[in-house]
Every structure is written in C-alpha cells, then in structure tokens.
Amino acid sequence: MNPQIPTAATTHWRILKFGGSSVARAENWPHIVARVREFSQQGQPVVVVVSALRGVTDRLQAHIDDGAQADNAVLLAELGQRHRRLLEECGLDPSALDETLAALQTFLDGEYDSSSPAKQAQLLAFGERLSSRLSVARLELDGVAAQWLDSRDLLVSFETESRSRRARYLSARCRPQSDPAKAKSLAKKSRVWVMPGFIAANPGGETVLLGRGGSDTSATSLAAVLGAHTVDIFSDVPGLFSADPRHVPGARLLRQVGFREAQELAAMGAKALHPAALIPAHEHGIEIKMHQTDRPDIEGTRITPAAREHGAQVKAIVQRKPITLVSLEDIGMWQQVGFLAAVFEVFRRLDLSVDQVSTSESNVTLTLDPDANVADRPVLEELARELGKLCKVEILSDCATVSLVGLGIRTILHRLGPALEVFEQRRIFQVSQAANDLNLTFVVESRHADRLVQQLHQQVIPGGVGGDSVFGPTWEQLFRNDAGPVATKPWWQTRREELIKLMDGRECAYVYDLPSVRAACERLLSLGAVDRVLYSMKANPHPEILRTAVNAGLGIECVSLNEARRALDSVNGLAAGDMLFTPNFAGRAEYRQAVELGLPLTIDNLYVLEHWGSDLAGQSVFLRLDPGSGLGHHKLVRTAGSHAKFGIPLSELDRALTLCRAHDIRIRGLHAHTGSGIMHADNWHRSLETLGEAARRIDSVEIINLGGGLGVPDRADELPLDIAAMDGGLAQLRKQLPSSVRIWIEPGRYVVSPAGVLLARVTQTKGKGDVRYIGLATGMNSLIRPALYGAWHEIVNLSRLDEGGNRVYNVVGPICESGDILGLDRLLPDSREGDIMLIANTGAYGAAMASHYNLRAPAPELTLD
Ligand code: LLP
C-alpha cells in the first residue's frame, strides 16, 4: 500500500470553512494559505469550504428582487469587475474566472426566470461558484495543489411535502450520512479540495441552497459525510461573544460552549454562526472551532460535545430584531376547543413560522421568526385580516427579543433579580422561558433593545479579565488597541526601594503616591466636555490627598459635615462654596448647619423638602435624581434603581418641583450617581441623557452633575476606562443642551485608588489540608473590600518581587473572622516571616473604611512625593 495514502479508517479529514469577508480581501489570502498548509502538512486531507465574496449574494438577491426591472448586463459587469479586481490584487490572471462568468451570462440570457425558486437558487449559487474557483487558483499560486469539489455530489437535500416550494429550493435541508467509500476515493485523488458552500442538490439533481449563511452548514454536513471530527470555521470575528461586541465592547469571548448552548445562541441572534450548522455537528459529534482568519494568535471558541458543564450560568445576552409580535385578544377564547388550532392554521396558510408563543386566558402572544419568514407588509395585512376573523389582533412589527442564554437558566432565576430591574421602565410584551432551560427571553420595543443588552450584560456576565475556561478576554482587550493592553509599570515597582525603607520598624502602612494622584487629576481636567471636577473625598479623606486634589484644580464633594470640616481645615484657601455636600438620610441639624456654613447642597429625598423646606428657603440646590438603574462593580455599590436608597425617582420630579417652588428653593443643578467602579463610558452618557431631559423642564438648571463612579482596572492586563470615549460622547450629547449648562463630575476612586498601596509584613505561614496560608500583620481592619465585595486586589511579595510565584496561597489577616481574607488562591513565591507584602490599588475605600475591630489599629497612612 502506498504509505502516502492513509486508509479510510485512519483518515481524518479536516474541514476548513472561510467566510465571505475572509475570501474577499487579498490581504487575507496569505493567512488562508498558511492555515490550509498547516492542516494538510499534518497529513490530513483537507476540504476548504468557501462562501461567496462578501456582498455578492446580496447583489444577486437584489437582482432577483428587482424582478423584470433587473438589468442583466449591469449585474454581469458588476460581478465581473468585482472578481477581476480581486484576482488582480491577488496576483492572478484576471481572466481566470471568465469561464464561470460566461456560464452566468448564458444562464441569464437563456433560462433565468426571477419568479422561479429553482432559477433563483441557480442564480444565487453563482456567488459560491465564482469564489470557489478563485480559491483554487489562489491556493495554486502559492503551490498548494487543490481540486474543485462539486458540493452537489456530496450534499443531497431531503424534503417533506409540508415545506413550501420556495423553502425546498432556497433553504433546503440535508440529512448527511457518513460515506466512507466516498471519503476514501476523494482522499486518493487529492490532498486539498475546495468546495463552494451554500450549494447542494435535491434528489433530482437540481441545484438547491442551504439558506442564507448556509456555508457553515455545508461545512458541518460535509464533515458528517467524510467522517471528519472537527470543522474549523474562519471569519472576521474570533468566535462567539457574550454579547454583540459592536454594542457591548466589554463582551467576552466565549472559550468553550456546548452544542445546545451554541445552538441557542445562534438561534437567538448571535450572528457569527448559522444555527442550522450545528445540527449535523450535534448529530455526528463533530467539534466546531471558530477562528478569526487574520488573527491566528487569538484563541477562538470551541463548540464541543465535551464542553465542560460549569453549572448554571448565563453565557450571553443576545438580541434579535426586528421581530414581529402578534397579540390576539379575546375573552371568549378561554377553554374554547380548537381556537389555537384555528390560529395556527392561518399562519400555516400564509407560510409563516411562529417562534415564541405565550398564552393566558384572554390573550395569546406570538412572535414571528425573522429568519424563516418573508413577513412583508402585504403578508402582515393578510395575516391581520385572517386572524381578525377569529379575535382582536394587534401586530407590532418593530419589536426585539432580548435573551439571556445559558445552561440551567431556571436554577439561577433568583439571582437575576437585580439584573431584571433594568426592565423597570420598559414595556415588556412577552417573557418566555424555554422548556430546554437554555434561554429566558423578553420581547421589548426595538429601540430599547441595545440598552437592555448593555445593562443586562454588565449585570450578569462576570467582568474583569478572562481567567476561566468559559469567559475569555473582552472584545476591547482583543481589539481596542491591536497591540493589546499596554501594561505600564505601576509606580510601586519603580519606587520599591523607597517603600521598603518606609517600612523600617513598621508592621503595616498605607502609602499614597502623590504624583499618581496629580496625574489622575490632570487626566480628568483634560476632559473637554466636563466643566468642573470635584473630588469625592469619601474615597480617601487624607489631608495630603485633599490638598493635592485641590491644588491640581479639583473641587471637593463631601457627604457629611465632618468631611466638610476636614476639607476646610486641611486645605488652605478652600471655601465652603467650592464644595458640594451630598448627604443621604442625614439629620435636620446637619442640613441646617450646611446652610449656615454656605455649603452648596444636594437634596435626594422629598422628605427634606416636605418637612424641612422652610430651612432651605432662598437656597439654590441640586436635586439628586435616580435615573432608574444602577451599575457598578458589586451590587452593594449600585446607587440607583428601585433597590437603592438614593435619589428622587423620575416619577416624583414634578412633586419635587412643586415643593421647591412652594418654599422658594431654586434648583440650580441636577445630579445623578449610578454606582461605583464602572468601566463603560456610556454610563455617563445615559445619565446625561436622562438629566438633560429633566433639565429641559426646569429653567433654572445651570449645572448637570453626572456623579462619580469612574472605575479603575483591578489587574494589569485589564483595559482602563476609555475616558476619551466618555468625553467624546458627552461632547456630542451636550450639543442638545442649552450652551449655558455646565457639566460636572465627582469621582473618588479614579483619583486615588491606583495611587495607594497597603504594605504589611508576613507574620507566619501555615498549611492546613490542601490550603496554604500567608498571614499578614493587618487584615480586614485595614482593608475590608475583599470581605465586603469580594474585591480582587493584586498582591505581591515586595521583598521578593523578582522571584516568580511557585505556590498558591490564601492571604489572610489577624482578625477573628473567617472572612478576614485579603486574597484567595494567589500564586506567590515562598514567603517568610518579616517579608513585606504589597496589596495594590488600595488608595480608595481602604483606610477610609478601616476599623478598630478586635481593637487592632488599622494601618497608618504615609505619603510619598
Ligand atoms: N458621588 C456620589 C454621590 C457617591 O455616592 C459616590 C460614591 C461618589 C460620588 C464617588 O464614587 P467613585 O468615583 O469613588 O466610584 N466602598 C465602595 C465604593 C462606594 C462608593 C459610594 N459612593 C468600594 O470600596 O468599592
């Protein structure tokens, strides 16, 4: 036997599928050739399945849609030009496709009939016929001998009478069966084949198509025929994401998903993969690996039967739009036998496939599947007429579905509570939870869908950098800056010697790097769309920090009179009028004293106006509004939405205005603060939209205060908040406001967090069972954030910064609480008693929230300049 040609039993075909945008760009071809080589050099025969060049199928479809008006000569000229240009750019003979183009001309001049589904299929197939011929030529140019494979010989459709003629030609279905003899004979003839995707044959040998996006299905069906274990799908994205990255830049790459989840994701709107492609893969146990053609360095998504079950988890938030919603109302339908049958009969007659259904005693709500239907206006009018004979009908054609997708959704419904608050002010037409326990879907107005996806994503998909086997890096991390996040060296690495010296004779200390504070202030002051920046001193009221912030040009925001006094005492030249007092549930005396001191005041509760209004007569105040939903790194720091105690709900604004008028209180500004540790710029855009809308109703408003909440990355490889994007969006939005309105922000964390570190000596180490502990001289009495919010702070052994980590430790403090943990599962070098450990990013809400619990004094505070 020829050793070069393996037997069918040992031959594992590799199927590589390249999408339309991959094959359409000359600069992608070196990548495509490299992938094909790589696989074929592993000794496996390869089939390259290609889509039509991007846009070509659309162009052919437009020709069909134009019917008798369509101009054959124009179509031919356009397609000819498009393909010849690519041939040239690839360094190929521009006449290489002339034969196929001539066949197209003959077809158009002769048998083409725009009203026949069979002829439509033949016309549309030309896109892939052209791209596959081009692909053979391009591979050969680089010395990869490839043969063209006619997909119609391998993929044969099966049909049932119940499907329309149109569907049978244009979205045909195959039931591929393994064919070892075919696999063997092909492997003998060539090691590399190129096959057009999308195209199959019916049992009568006519050309049929597998539906839009059907090339993925061609690839997995072919894999089933040839007995391949894996299909590699290459496109212009690296895989499936936890949301559409165009709307949610923080969407995370899904590293691994199971078939059922992938199917649900694809069906519910994740565009990167065609849902039908998963059926043969599932049935034949074929693994799908998704990749980005020009970024072989990015690990894509694996869709595999062996995907590890990670327990119940929302993997993605997806939306589909436009969705047509049909609402049927009839009090008499309850218990009426055959009502639904009659309704569905109408859908069947009109060839409309129903997607989701929900019923109550007097209402049935259905949605139409946008992919499977041609629901144009005449069809919908007909539908309304026909259903109108049975009951009252309402058809809304501008809806969207927003779905949470993941295994075991049912078991985590209770955890979704806070996330679902985002629906508070939106109209929900339908909620459905699929029996397969994989999705929870809401039908809402189309215009709300993007926002809802963003908000739900932020609330239910874990943030941060990908350390787990399900969620990979975010889209931003992969693409915002192609070079990847630039990890600048933190200040404490540069100033390591000084820090070690500062610790002479000490057990623990907070150290603040004032130049870092100044640099953060400068970044904030450079925002063109922001007129004033206040430092929210609750993050860190250390006098040096206050002085540094004010000297850099920031004002001060405070939440108690003691904070106000601290600022006035610490900073020379600071006047009460330069500050803003934003109390929440403070007593009447505090409000009175604030007025006496001349502190500008923010009111966040109608009670204050209703009962103490007279104390505020003649004052100019800010009203703190609750824009309806909060964001933040943890639920405890989301300060808007119905569960949060802050702010005046928008529904009470009118009442607030009346009360202010009654007490002669002038509303000088509006304020909102949605939460803390927010990494997405559009949070402040949304606040500005909401406050701007409210401000239009109040002539006296001069200032819109968008609050703080600007997040900082926890980890070195996490991208920072894009403050340029924040600024850009604000600049756009403020154009819609009167030019006299000023914009303020009041961040705390952003100013001080990275500037601070907590240093603590190792007191002892311990191993108990499998777990090793490093004990520090201080714990949750100095830093409560890990215990309270599960916050993650980088921990290093400053004394052994050059030694790599060699063991996993829990880093704990000396407090009598099991929650006294500073970091779990940290890879650290073997540490000894007396070593100095550093806990990073602790300038904000560290010392400020410290306590004397167990009568252990928290770490003293030092500054470096
Ligand atoms: N403005 C108002 C009205 C606030 O309530 C807050 C923080 C800020 C500004 C400043 O937020 P920042 O820019 O620092 O995110 N202890 C929590 C943070 C609680 C924040 C409370 N309010 C933590 O350690 O994460």
Keywords:
single chain, 865 residues, alpha/beta, Carbamate kinase, VC0802-like, Lyase, Ornithine Decarboxylase, Chain A, domain 1, 4 domains, eight-stranded mixed β-sheet, 28 helices, globular, binds ligand LLP
Number of helices: 28
The biggest beta sheet is recorded as: 9 strands, parallel
CATH top level assignment of the largest domain: Alpha Beta
Structural class: alpha/beta
Mean pLDDT: 89
How would you name the CATH homologous superfamily of the largest domain?
Answer: Alanine racemase
Supply the number of structural domains: 4
CATH fold name of the largest domain, please? TIM Barrel
Report the uncertain regions: 1-9, 482-486
Bound molecules: ligand LLP
What's the total number of strands?
37
Query: What CATH architecture of the largest domain do you see?
Result: Alpha-Beta Barrel
Q: Looking at the structure, what is the overall shape?
A: globular
Helix content: 25-40%
Structure, explained:
With 865 residues, this protein is an alpha/beta fold. It folds into 4 domains: 14-54 and 128-236, Acetylglutamate kinase-like (Carbamate kinase); 314-479, VC0802-like, CATH 3.30.2130; 491-509 and 754-864, Lyase, Ornithine Decarboxylase, Chain A, domain 1 (Beta Barrel); 527-747, TIM Barrel, CATH 3.20.20.10. The chain is 32% helix and 22% strand. A hairpin with a 2-residue loop joins strand 31 (756-768) and strand 32 (771-776). It binds ligand LLP. Ligand LLP is lined by residues 536, 539, 557, 582, 637, 639, 673, 676-677, 707-710, 746-750, 785, 789, 844-845. The site of ligand LLP has 22 residues, from helix 27 and helix 28.
